[in-house]
Amino acid sequence: MTKGKLIIIEAGDGSGKATQTEALYAHLVRDGRRVHRISFPDYDSESSALVRMYLDGVFGAHADDVNPYAASTFFAVDRFASYRTTWKRWYDAGDIILADRYTTSNMVHQAVKIEDAQEREAFLDWLYDFEFRKMGLPVPDAVVFLDMAPDVADRLLAARAVKTGEKEDIHERDKGYLARCHAAYLALAEKYGWARVRCSEGGAPRAVAAIHEDVWRALAPVLAVQEGKA
Fold it and tell me: Using H for helix, E for strand and C for coil, what is the string for 36-67?
């Protein structure tokens, strides 16, 4: 049986992941595709308990207080639970799975905690083996990196916090950490061949519709394969 397609929307905090994931989902639905939207962490599931404790600062007030292997395991367990209980049956049936974040987030957010380049590569190799081989999670068919300049993302995060009254997590509070993550996103997008879509220019966000057009264009080859086209 032909498996489905797993498409990941990746970006730093405040970069419009949810907005672009929803826009892509709506486009696919209009085109009559069988598509399901998921996001990580899965805060509605009990499997995200350790993730929530980590992001709330229970294990330490700073992201670096929890080593990347431990933190990655928290997120991996949440992904495994979601896969086995929710979307595996859709994926096995050949449907499109559209994910807001995935293992790719740990590749960035945890790898930046490791300064030594060789140790960082060893971590990335471990994470790939742990999630995709040992846990059996599907390897993405495509990853789209939404490249929002860190200073623009910082302003959007601050505005969102004022509007919603939500408390920033330990990642969002550490602006230096977010800047390091952006640099890691750029490096990993090149390393793994992720599609890179610019989301800001001239110190301001680009229009949502313009970003979506670029996302759709970047995914055209994968989506064409899904439909059995040349």
Answer: EEEECCCCCCHHHHHHHHHHCCCCCCCHHHCC
Number of neighbouring beta carbons within 10 Å of residue 185: 26
Residues of the chain with pLDDT under 50: 225-230
Q: Model confidence over 38-87: pLDDT tens digits? A: 999 999 999 999 999 999 999 998 888 999 999 999 999 999 999 999 99
- The residue range of the domain holding 219 is 5-226
User: How far is the C-alpha of 194 from the C-alpha of 189, rounded, in Å?
Assistant: 5
Domain count for the chain: 1
CATH assignment of the domain containing 139: 3.40.50.300
Question: For residue 151, what are the CA distances in angstroms to 12, 49, 156, 201?
Answer: 12, 31, 9, 11
